[in-house]
Design goal:
Elements: H1 5-25, E1 26-29, H2 38-50, E2 54-64, E3 69-79, E4 82-89, E5 92-98, E6 102-106, E7 111-115, E8 143-153, E9 156-165, E10 171-177, E11 183-189, E12 194-199, E13 203-204, E14 222-228, H3 231-236, E15 248-257, E16 261-269, E17 272-279, E18 291-295, E19 298-305, E20 308-315, E21 318-324, H4 328-335
Parallel strand pairs: 1-8
Antiparallel strand pairs: 2-3, 2-12, 2-13, 3-4, 4-5, 5-6, 6-7, 8-9, 9-10, 10-11, 11-12, 14-15, 15-16, 16-17, 17-21, 18-19, 19-20, 20-21
Helix pairs in contact: 1-2
InterPro entries: Sporulation_related (IPR052944)
Organism: Haloplanus rubicundus
Protein name: DUF2092 domain-containing protein
Length: 340
């Protein structure tokens, strides 16, 4: 089976972030007398990255399994709550970023931009860490860290630590510089793919210009992002005829591009977070795994996106999507309550 772009992109992010999160949840397995524990080494690395005001690094990534092999170069820049990741492969270059206003994605054949504070994003775009200290790894919270040995990586003295998932499905071996706790190399297996990451020059606390985190101007042109704290206010500031939901209104945002307008309304309903999106963008939701449903006379589709369900339909050039932090049946029920 050939590793998909989504497979190894996710693994890249796992390896980049694993040392930042396992320190808090790893069981301590000490080394021989005179050696630090694996937990202590990971704690130092986690603190090194978390305490940095900015980070710039490059990594060469190889993802392989029994039948295929893929390589990529990953460039990461982060400062405060902003970040940018560039993944270069034989098939093209993929860029993702988050600045003070928007999150964005640019691939060879498509682009996307959305309010960085919105609870939903396009389904096929990359996941991007938005804060140096805000990394989460589903499935890597219960791990055991073991100090293996003192070694070297390309002439740099290194601690070698193995991180094992408690259910036995994943193992990461990390080479960490003894001098400054930076990542040098990582090898990860997840039961299907094998990932190797060789880190190049990693720089902490360097000056990164704000323009670094903006999308390429020739691919994405965002005019503005405005936020409102009432339905009346957001409706008054867009030409779209917005639907309403009989639930607790939290906030809304209007993202204006040269070619489209997207309004995202945030609600709380019965303990669930609900986002109602109205957009003139021609971006399509994932139809491959969608199920056809009817919503208030509209021919709609419902699909699962990560831990959420999305119901969507298009009418008169405007796509409406209802996103609920729950199952598909719940999302359909909420969508049918919209007052259009």
């Amino acid at each position: 089976m050939q590793p998909t772009f989504g497979d190894w992109r996710r693994l890249v992010l796992v390896v980049v972030a694993v040392s930042l999160v396992v320190g808090a949840g790893a069981a301590i397995t000490g080394g021989q007398s005179g050696q630090p524990s694996g937990d202590a080494v990971l704690n130092d690395t986690r603190d090194r990255y978390a305490d940095a005001e900015s980070l710039v690094t490059t990594a060469e990534v190889t993802v392989s399994n029994d039948t295929a092999n893929r390589t990529a170069t990953v460039d990461v820049a982060a400062a405060g709550n902003q970040s940018r990741t560039v993944v270069t492969t034989d098939n093209g270059t993929y860029r993702t970023g988050v600045n003070e206003s928007i999150a964005w994605y640019v691939g060879p054949n498509r682009t996307a931009a959305w309010d960085r504070n919105a609870s939903v994003r396009p389904t096929d775009t990359a996941s991007v860490p938005t804060n140096l200290t805000d990394h989460s790894l589903d499935g890597w919270e219960n791990v055991t860290a073991e100090y293996l040995r003192s070694d070297s990586d390309d002439g740099t003295d290194a601690h070698v630590v193995e991180v094992r998932h408690d259910d036995g499905e994943g193992t990461a071996t990390l080479w960490i510089a003894q001098s400054d706790s930076r990542l040098l190399r990582a090898e990860l297996t997840d039961g299907r793919n094998r990932t190797t990451v060789d880190y190049g020059d990693t720089q902490f606390n360097v000056s990164v210009h704000d323009s670094t985190f903006d999308p390429p101007a020739d691919r994405i042109a965002v005019t503005s992002v405005e936020r409102y704290d009432s339905f009346a206010a957001v409706q008054a500031n867009t030409t779209l005829d917005l639907p309403t939901l009989d639930a607790t209104f939290r906030e809304a945002s209007v993202l204006t591009r040269s070619s489209s307008t997207t309004v995202a309304q945030e609600y709380r309903d019965g303990g669930d977070n609900v986002t109602v999106i109205s957009t003139t963008s021609d971006r399509e939701f994932d139809r491959e795994n969608a199920t056809a449903v009817t919503v208030n006379g509209h021919d709609a589709n419902v699909t699962a996106v990560r831990d959420r369900a999305v119901v969507y339909w298009t009418d008169g050039g405007v796509t409406t999507a209802v996103v609920v932090d729950a199952g598909e049946d719940r999302a359909v029920e909420v969508a049918r309550r919209l007052d259009e």
